[in-house]
Amino acid sequence: MGLLFFSAILNAQAIDPARLGFEAHQLKTQTLGEVNYYLTATTDDTPKPLLVYLDGSGADPLFQQVEGGITSTIALNYQQLLDAYRVLVISKPGVPFIGELSVAEEEVPMHKEPAAYTERLSLAWRVESTHLVIQKLIGEKVIDPEKVVVLGFSEGAQVAPFVAEKNQYVSHVLLFGGNGLNQFFDPIITARQKALTGQISEEDAQNTIDSLYLIYQEIYAQPASTTKRWWGHTFKRWSSFTQRDPLDALLKLDIPIYMANGSLDENSVLSADYIKLEFIRQGKQNLTYKTYPNYDHQFNELIFENGTFKDAIPQLDKVLDAAISWLKEP
Questions:
Q1: Neighbours of 176 (CB within 10 A)
Q2: What does the pLDDT look like over 40-77, one tens digit per residue?
Q3: FRET pair for 150, CA 20 to 30 Å: which of 100, 123, 158, 323?
Q4: CA distance 37 to 89
Q5: Considering all CA atoms of the chain, what is the largest pairwise distance in Å, rounded to the nearest integer?
Q6: Which of 177, 143, 123, 140 is nearest to 52 (CA)?
Q7: Cα separation of 158 and 130, whole Å?
Q8: Is 21 left (phi over 0), alpha (psi -120 to 50) or beta?
């Protein structure tokens, strides 16, 4: 899912990239269509390192107007990094930089999915668009090519390894809430865990898994479909993101990799644990892997008393601060 946080940067009147500290740019190719990207502005002509932020899934704009202010899919406090980096964010196909969120009947903020997003969104689109923008910025000599950091959250953490595999300038990769194996494996693991802990019966778990295999067969039989959907995404999106495991790309990298997950993240933590195991097995020393006990997918610390949920304490800033400190290490 996309990661949202409330921001007190400014009110929601006349918001544009410049007011939020970004320069707006665009490139266009026949395959990708329009790629709209935004680079933090600077008054210093000296090229700085680049930090590429890849947000999570969904068609939400990078910034959204809501009552009382704005929210963003950018979990990183980019304003605190301006002295050290130019920060790059890329809109998904057809998705505006900023837009208004309506509220559905269940009181969940929603954004209408643009046609271009439905037709074009795939792993290949996100990887290739990011690669081309990095190449363009380096060619324009507006960034320092010696340090190009790619940071991905959730779906972005699945994109980042393939960007690093493709682009020779990527020097560091940071992954938050990302998978190691095929995403389709996660719901299977979850069903088995629920049966093991007595939340559901073994029969119910097997029925769930059998039904998952049926939908997976359907998705892989129609991998280009943009009209059929499962769990809020097109078959095209699902098939593209599950053709290769992120682990495959990560194992090819010799650059520093930082990965953080919450132990209560059903989406990814077990398959992410497997990444660490494979790095150990293959004798690779370039992975720093941190698991935060009792944290969920968005790095909220979940508090339980006698097995009953009591509270969720946001700890994302702490998690990000640790990662940024790691980036500063020689």
A1: 30
A2: 999 888 899 999 999 999 999 999 887 777 889 999 99
A3: 100
A4: 6
A5: 64
A6: 143
A7: 13
A8: left
Cα(330)–Cα(164) distance, integer angstroms: 20
Angle 209-210-214 (CA atoms, 0-180°, nearest 5)? 115
Using the predicted structure, report yes or no on whether residue 9 has a pLDDT greater than 60: no
| Helix, coil or strand: residue 28 | strand
In this model, does residue 14 exceed pLDDT 80?
no
- The interaxial angle of helices 202-221 and 185-196, nearest 10 deg, is 180
What are the angstrom distances between the C-alpha of 157 and each of 5, 97, 289?
18, 21, 14
Contact 313, 300 (CB under 8 A): yes
Determine the Cα–Cα distance for residues 216 and 198; give it in Å rounded to an integer: 26
- In which residue ranges of the chain is CATH 3.40.50.1820 found? 5-181+245-328
In angstroms, the Cα distances linking 330 to 118, 151, 181 are 42, 18, 30
Strands 48-54 and 86-90 turn out to be parallel
Structure token pair of residue 316? 């994302």
Residue 160: both structure tokens together: 């980042």
**295-328 residue pLDDT tens:** 999 999 999 998 889 999 999 999 999 999 999 8
Q: Measured in whole angstroms, how far is the alpha carbon of residue 302 from the centre of its chain?
A: 21
Partners of 50 in beta bridges: 86, 148
Which secondary structure element, helix H or strand E, spans residue 37, and what is its range?
strand 33-40
Residue 32 has which token pair? 């990708």
pLDDT one-digit tens code per residue, 208-267: 999 999 999 999 999 999 999 999 999 999 999 999 999 999 999 999 999 999 999 987
Which CATH number does 5-181+245-328 carry? 3.40.50.1820
8-state DSSP, 20: G
**Among the listed ranges 26-35, 74-83, 166-175, 223-232, which one has the minimum average pLDDT value?**
74-83
Cα 273 to Cα 3, 51, 243, 244, 268, distances in angstroms: 22, 26, 20, 17, 9
